[in-house]
Amino acid sequence: MADLEGNRNAKSFAPETPELQLGHSIKGAHNLDWGMQHRLGRVLSGSTGRTVMLAFDHGYFQGPTSGLERLDLNISPLSDYADALMCTRGALRTAMPPTTGAGLVLRASGGPSVLKELSDEQTALAIEDAVRLDASAVAVQVFIGGEHETQSVKNLTTLIDDGYRVGVPVLGVTAVGKDLTRDARYLGLATRIIAELGAQLVKTYYCESGFEDVVAGCPVPVIMAGGKKLPELDALTMASRAVRAGAAGVDMGRNIFQSDSPIGMIQAIRAVVHDDASPEDAYAIYSDSRKAV
Ligand code: R5P
């Protein structure tokens, strides 16, 4: 019991000072509950409101991928350079250090492998396990225009409802099927649908023309997806253009872990995303790290 003797009367209420407006300035998040805003802040860095996410969830449908043969050796050394890790619970529990300071975006959909129709996914994670793993968000593919579009939308909305129950945000990922064009019209359609259905974050591919309209038309933060491995300067240029067009950062996998200097590359991407470095200046960071090896 608190000591009742010697208590000092409370008197510093500063009645003339308006209440401080506390909180993140995360797009679309001002009406979310505290826990959800707090978790979003683990994905989007407090200082810039942007993120460098490291994606290595490929194994959930591709099995072992080049650069991800040994998650403990290939990825755990990178974990402290990322604002958030995007991975499966299997990868997390078997190969990631729980000491990492990075946020966690947990893959929550799956089903078909690369041998089958990829849009035929289901949710693949109970939200309680996401909470148990201290997930900052859960991620689900949404195949707008794909063969199993409605099922993937149902996966999204189920996870969003689960997430609201426990305060975990959802990252909806626009999964572009092989017959769909990655242009601003399609990406604007897909990102907007995902946000309107309730996702608090959206991940989508970059397009050269009209990406700023895709971002502006989406009422929650848009995170640029990496895609296939590009020459390092091209990948840095794409990331730079995306954040300059308003993206809240990037989620890149192969362009980092398939680089000949993954640590140099993630540092270069951080410079683009958080310091607005030019692609050329960021490339110098990557290049210097190769010389140092
Ligand atoms: C896309 O969202 C998939 O889940 C991938 O497994 C991964 O996140 C893609 O990363 P990247 O295309 O940058 O290698």
SSE inventory with pairings:
Layout lengths: L33 H10 L7 E5 L3 H4 L8 H4 L9 E4 L1 H7 L7 E5 L1 E2 L11 E2 L3 H6 L4 E6 L6 H18 L3 E5 L9 H13 L4 E4 L6 H6 L5 E4 L6 H13 L4 E4 L1 H4 L4 H14 L3 H14 L1
Parallel strand pairs: 1-2, 1-10, 2-3, 3-6, 6-7, 7-8, 8-9, 9-10
Antiparallel strand pairs: 4-5
The structure holds ribose-5-phosphate (R5P).
Describe the protein.
There is one protein chain. With 293 residues, this protein is α/β, with parallel strands linked by helices. It has a domain at 34-228 and 248-254: Aldolase class I (TIM Barrel, Alpha-Beta Barrel). The chain has helices at residues 34-43, 59-62, 71-74, 89-95, 127-132, 149-166, 184-196, 211-216, 232-244, 254-257, 262-275, 279-292; strands at residues 51-55, 84-87, 103-107, 109-110, 122-123, 137-142, 170-174, 201-204, 222-225, 249-252. Strand 2 (84-87), helix 4 (89-95) and strand 3 form a beta-alpha-beta unit.
What structural keywords apply?
binds ribose-5-phosphate; TIM Barrel; alpha/beta; 293 residues; eight-stranded parallel β-barrel; single chain; 39% helix
Per CATH, the superfamily of the domain at 34-228 and 248-254 is: Aldolase class I
The assigned CATH architecture of the domain at 34-228 and 248-254 is Alpha-Beta Barrel
Shape: globular
Q: Determine the mean pLDDT.
A: 94
- How many strands appear in the DSSP assignment? 10
Bound molecules: ribose-5-phosphate
CATH topology (level 3) name of the domain at 34-228 and 248-254? TIM Barrel
- So how many helices? 12
Estimated radius of gyration: 20 Å
- Secondary-structure content class: alpha/beta
Binned, the helix content reads: 25-40%
Biggest β-sheet: strands ordered side by side in the sheet: 1-2-3-6-7-8-9-10
The CATH C-level name of the domain at 34-228 and 248-254 is Alpha Beta
Order of helices and strands: HEHHEHEEEHEHEHEHEHEHHH
Largest sheet, strands/sense/barrel: 8 strands, parallel, barrel
